[in-house]
Design brief:
- The chain is built from seven helices and 17 strands.
- Strands 3-2-4-5-1-10-11-16-17 form a nine-stranded mixed sheet, with helices on both faces. The protein has a four-stranded mixed sheet with strand order 8-9-12-15.
- The two termini are 21 Å apart.
Length: 285
């Protein structure tokens, strides 16, 4: 895979318009802990994308023990001028099964929070609420997830794992995600907690996927054109397996290192763009 310097450009989020009728909404994966305070630039950008003062943003908390988490994000969005912000806390799967079919009607953006990706999966996956989010996102509603909520956005998510740079067969556990996007694996606290090995192992199980590892206070804004733009103060590690020539897991050596030949890795910061369809990174001008 090669890296372009200037030709490839995503649509600027500063001047982004509402998606065309029938276009999928943005999918936004935000790294860091669950707190709102460090993420002002990212939250402001999401609010603008949803329509600014005219937007209706629904904050959804699922399986979280922190009751104040949603209130913090609600205050932040109101500070950015969003007049309509609603918060729903789904404590268990039964809450999601009995939700109204039109509970997200008129919502411009969903902001998903949670403290544990496993609890998010157990609470939300394949429920009527998850199906509503998927249908509305396919029609143009934007969806963001922070921390565990970011990992939960794709079809398959990293549920748990161990630290370390080298991939090993027993280093990662996978679980069903929200199914908003295929061929993508997302991990958070990536470089700080040394999670490259578990990302690589997840990609051996999903050989056509792209992996993105998020630093704190850093977000990937993925548009309907499959172009990923970086917003925030940290970096995003992109691991591309499209040219992978070899990987092998020995069934009798679960703790042994796994070889992977033909990987491509990019480190992106704000102002960089990654085209997930073309497998090309660029510097946006």
């Amino acid at each position: 895979m090669t890296t372009a310097n200037s030709e490839l450009r995503g649509e600027s989020l500063h001047r982004s318009k509402a998606p065309a009728v029938g276009a999928r909404g943005f999918i936004v994966a935000i790294g860091g802990d669950g707190k709102a305070a460090p993420k002002a630039a990212i939250l402001r950008r999401f609010a603008e994308l949803c329509g600014g003062s005219r937007a209706h943003i629904a904050i959804i908390s699922a399986g979280s023990d922190d009751e104040d988490l949603g209130a913090g994000y609600e205050r932040a969005f109101r500070d950015f001028g969003v007049n309509r912000v609603s918060t729903s806390n789904f404590e268990n799967r039964a809450d999601c099964e009995t939700a109204r079919d039109d509970s997200l009607g008129g919502v411009d953006g969903v902001f998903l929070i949670g403290s544990d990706p496993v609890r998010l999966s157990e609470t939300l996956s394949a429920t009527p609420v998850a199906q509503q989010i998927g249908r509305r996102n396919a029609r143009g509603m934007h969806v963001a997830g922070v921390s565990a909520g970011a990992a939960f956005l794709p079809r398959q998510m990293i549920a748990a794992g161990k630290s370390g740079t080298t991939p090993r067969a027993d280093i990662v556990e996978l679980a069903p995600g929200l199914c908003l996007i295929d061929h993508l694996v997302i991990d958070q606290h990536f470089r700080h907690q040394d999670r490259l090995g578990r990302m690589l192992m997840a990609l051996t199980y999903n050989p056509h996927a792209v992996g993105i590892g998020l630093d704190p206070d850093t977000a990937a804004f993925i548009g309907p054109d499959q172009k990923l733009q970086v917003v925030g103060t940290g970096g995003i590690t992109v691991v591309d397996t499209s040219q992978l020539r070899h990987s092998a897991i020995h069934p009798d050596r679960r703790h042994a290192p796994v070889s992977m030949i033909g990987l491509h890795l990019d480190i992106l910061v704000e102002g960089n763009v990654y085209d997930m369809s073309a497998h090309l990174a660029s510097i946006e001008r």
